[in-house]
Amino acid sequence: MSLLPDIQSSLSQINRLNQLDWVGLSAVELPIRVKGCDLAFMAQVRVGVNLTSSEARGIHMSRLYNILEKSLPNIIIGQSSNELFDLHEKVLKTQGGLSDWAQIQIDWQMPVGTVTLKSEQATQKIYPVTLIISGKPQSEVTLEWGVQIIYSSTCPQSYALSTQAQVEEFEQKFKAGTPSDFNFDAVKAWLEQGLVATPHAQRSQAHVFVQVNQTQKNNWESENSYQDIGPFVSLIKLSEAQLATASQTLVKRSDEKEFALINAQNTLFCEDAARRLAQGLSQLKIKRYYGHVIHFESLHPFDVRAYFSGNL
Asked: Residue of 17, 28, 190, 233 with fewest CB within 10 Å of its CB?
């Protein structure tokens, strides 16, 4: 029986000396386990390496999938990062010297228990989360934890204009009247007619990432393990506390009223939201943080964004 051809190992006649930054697999669906969760999650995995060898036409793609399928379901994410760094090393070894850098990205939807603002009803929210391991073993391999937060942003400018309109209406109603017209019942009745203008607000999105190296990982995991669930929930709690206006799932009227009060106390330009997040993240014992916010404008037919980062 003749040997099967190995085209990947053959020399390419076109640009054979060019190195490639990233080659690999994306949208690989695999089950994962997460610390503190009894059920497995289906994740989308992206794994790739660079191609430094000029003597190979391509990398060993099937080896990447094989090592992921065998290793990833046995790792409990959030329990110990050592297994993730070991997986990164195994990915590089599958290439037999063709690569010196690798990256693994794992994305999934994670439910987190929460309580409503006023009615104290137990409920859950779903958060998109990301884990990234990347780097060169001979220099540095880093681990990144990422979360996506949905929040409400009331425009400070619109809030000020709405307040001004309310004051002007009040003056028009009562300034020309006699002192007897200006009494508690009259003002209360006027207020109960409703606001003359409302500020515009919109659903907004924050993407938040923190990065640790192999030296920092143990401190980060031990200090940021929220109720034994792992670092993701700690990052979610910190981000939502900084923004103050995180979106709600289950709401009763008392919760909606409280949400309105919180939004009035925390009006946000996208710049405000980005700075609030950066301020909170800068207190962590990590290597680096970065992220961005998006406000899906209701006044405009376009979105506004702000990006932030910091090295610690």
From this structure: 17
